[in-house]
Specification:
single chain, 6-stranded antiparallel beta barrel, globular, alpha+beta, 6-stranded mixed beta sheet, 17 strands
Length: 338
């Protein structure tokens, strides 16, 4: 299979990501059973360097940024003074710089960081790198064969040493890697992977897989309406590091068990709508749907939603309401599909 023109176009816009390349069902099967290629160019890449840049990041985000080793990767959340989510980022440490990958607008995050940059030795800029995600149960074996490496031996988000102009990082969740580089190098590697049986996947299949996996997304579950505990991002929070923006609120929520709602899965036998409100069957308001899809694996409608703790028990039935209609949905633990 040749590389589709819509896979890593030279000029990228969010609108250029197709709903599908071949067939959504075939693409979904590649994610679940084979090797899938996903153009994640919607991720913004910011390059941060300078002798003070790790300390700078440490006082602005939720995770420990100091003492990290070259090739190490980790997640951190940038929060406002209320402890609400402005952006979730993957931080990839290099010898003298850190790459930030985020689903937030890179320009917006860069402006946000600049607000807190005073006299430190820190340089920040948008990076031209684009990112290709290679994922699925056979992805790591194919990468091992192609680059003579053993991806499974490195930690999640760590950089994998490969003989290529591309940088390679192990994915945080599931099998596979992320390849970062210039468009021409990514298209060349994509061509080799496609010739070995990999399948390009579009937004429709990826969104189904994301919701089944219970992974929050910028602009949907990751917004200034929610805090990292509610979004299930405890993995990106250090409770032992020094102060950062929003730290007092985030620590207090944990210490005094004040997290009032959480991200859960929903299952239904009729379509639900993002933005629909959730209520107990006796009418009490409990939350809101943030994302929805139809799951081929489960054979039903699925959704992610923020629900108050009193309505989060798996198996509990809730009323899902829009202006036009009411559905009954069932709460389910995440991930919906392991």
């Amino acid at each position: 299979m040749t590389v589709p023109d819509s896979l890593f176009p030279s000029t990228f816009s969010a609108d250029s990501l197709p709903a599908s390349y071949i067939d959504p069902e075939q693409e979904y099967r590649a994610l679940r059973e084979g090797c899938a290629l996903y153009d994640t160019s919607q991720l913004s890449t910011i390059q941060i360097s300078g002798s003070d840049h790790r300390d700078f990041l440490n006082r602005l985000s939720t995770n420990e940024c100091l003492g990290r080793q070259p090739s190490e990767g980790f997640e951190s959340v940038f929060t406002d003074h209320r402890g609400r989510i402005f952006a979730l980022a993957e931080l990839h440490c290099r010898d003298a710089q850190t790459l930030l990958w985020t689903g937030q607008s890179g320009e917006d995050l860069l402006k946000w960081l600049e607000r807190y940059h005073f006299s430190e030795d820190v340089q920040m800029s948008m990076d031209p790198l684009r990112v290709l995600e290679v994922s699925g149960p056979t992805a790591e074996a194919l990468m091992d064969e192609l680059f003579s490496v053993q991806v499974g031996r490195v930690a999640p988000l760590a950089e994998v040493d490969i003989d290529s102009p591309l940088a390679c990082f192990r994915r945080l969740c599931g099998d596979g890697v992320q390849l970062a580089g210039m468009v021409e190098d990514l298209r060349k590697t994509a061509g080799v992977l496609l010739a070995r049986g990999a399948v390009p996947v579009g937004e429709e299949a990826v969104e189904i897989f994301r919701i089944e996996s219970g992974e929050p997304r910028q602009g949907f579950e990751l917004t200034l309406d929610y805090n990292p505990w509610e979004a299930g991002l405890g993995r990106a929070i250090s409770l032992s590091k020094g102060c950062y923006i929003g730290q007092e609120v985030i620590a207090r929520l944990d210490t005094y068990d004040k997290v009032k709602q959480q991200l859960v899965g929903l299952m239904a036998h009729a379509p639900v709508t993002a933005g629909a409100t959730l209520h107990s069957l006796d009418g009490s308001a409990l939350g809101m749907v943030t994302s929805r899809a139809t799951s081929p694996q489960l054979g039903c409608e699925i959704a992610l939603a923020y629900v108050r703790n009193t309505g989060c028990e798996p198996g509990l039935r809730l009323a899902c309401r829009t202006e036009e209609i009411e559905r009954v949905v069932t709460v389910a633990s995440l991930p919906l599909v392991a």
